Amino acid sequence: MKDIEKVTVIGSGTMGRQIGIVAALAGFTTSIVDISEDALSAAKDELHRRMDRDVEKGRRTREDVDAAFARLSLTTNQAEAVADTDIVIEAAVEDIDIKRKVFAQLDEQSPKHAILATNSSNIVSSRLADATSRPEKVCNMHFFNPVLVMKACEVVGSDQTSQETLEAVENLAVAMGKDVIRVRKEIPGFVANRLLAAIRTEALKLYQDGYASFEDIDTAARSALRHPMGPFELMDLVGIDVAYLIRKAEYDQTGEEDSLPSPVLEKMYNSGNYGKKTGQGWYVYDEQGNKVRPSDV
Ligand code: 3HC
């Protein structure tokens, strides 16, 4: 297998944009692709802001950051971006039909040797592999939010993924500064999100059944368990839409009632308040993304 030199990320949202800059910082020629120019421009602005702050705080040098941006391109032209890519990391919306369409396109547009990975944690790659002609090169490569900070990366193959593919993806994750968690067989949510889901489900239940306010449940997680954030704060960071769609995707795969999103999560999702990215979720945020107060839910 050819060494990975060029990385393409599909989707410039919260995850995609940071996966892209982390790859560029690690020395890979990187493209971030999105269907929306506005989304790409928002991604570029945020990445510049974050990198400027890192330089200001002495966490990175200006040379390293400039070199990373010189290796990074943001584009709406997917066919051109993937034409010479060695791996694609798809981080588009958590919707199986959209992902299958994207994988079929990527299969046509990218070189035969290219690996096609998805950042999804709930849509396992075997559900995408048959949309391509290269199931042995399809797998999950799952990063955590915020990708610039969180060290973990779960790598998961289906029955059809080759050992060679898994090793190449693990090596890439290590080169990107990540700790690899190899998940030995497919299960929706993999390891970390299943642990997280157990806490989140219990937190939503405690709140919904009136045992405590969501602010106090967050305080308990932070002050009693030393979690860096409470489960409601974390939903706002990850996105209420993502938290909701993850549950829906799990239900579609398991058919178990327990997998369904809880009614309070569904209500929040339907309100269109998706957390930090829309300025309101469980909490209200100012323009800089600082938490201002609990929202009136
Ligand atoms: N992007 C990049 N860097 C960020 C960031 C972001 N969104 N938020 C914070 N940081 C970095 C910055 O360097 C910041 O320093 P700075 O303010 O001087 O620039 C530094 O982290 C510390 O940030 P804060 O002082 O604002 O706050 P914290 O010390 O609480 O750290 C946190 C923020 C790293 C997000 C921390 O609260 C944390 O680890 N929270 C838990 C995150 C978590 O559990 N993630 C996993 C979610 S599950 C998932 O992603 C799976 C997916 O499938 C949904």
Automatic annotation (TrEMBL):
It comes from the Bacteria. The keyword ATP-binding does not apply. InterPro entries: 3-OHacyl-CoA_DH, 3-OHacyl-CoA_DH_NAD-bd, 3HC_DH_C, 6-PGluconate_DH-like_C_sf, 6PGD_dom2, NAD(P)-bd_dom_sf. GO terms for molecular function: NAD+ binding; oxidoreductase activity, acting on the CH-OH group of donors, NAD or NADP as acceptor. Keywords: Oxidoreductase. The keyword Cell membrane does not apply. SUPFAM superfamilies: 6-phosphogluconate dehydrogenase C-terminal domain-like (SSF48179), NAD(P)-binding Rossmann-fold domains (SSF51735). One of its GO terms (biological process) is fatty acid metabolic process. Pfam families: 3HCDH, 3HCDH_N. Pathway: Lipid metabolism; butanoate metabolism. Belongs to the 3-hydroxyacyl-CoA dehydrogenase family. This is 3-hydroxyacyl-CoA dehydrogenase. It comes from Corynebacterium liangguodongii.
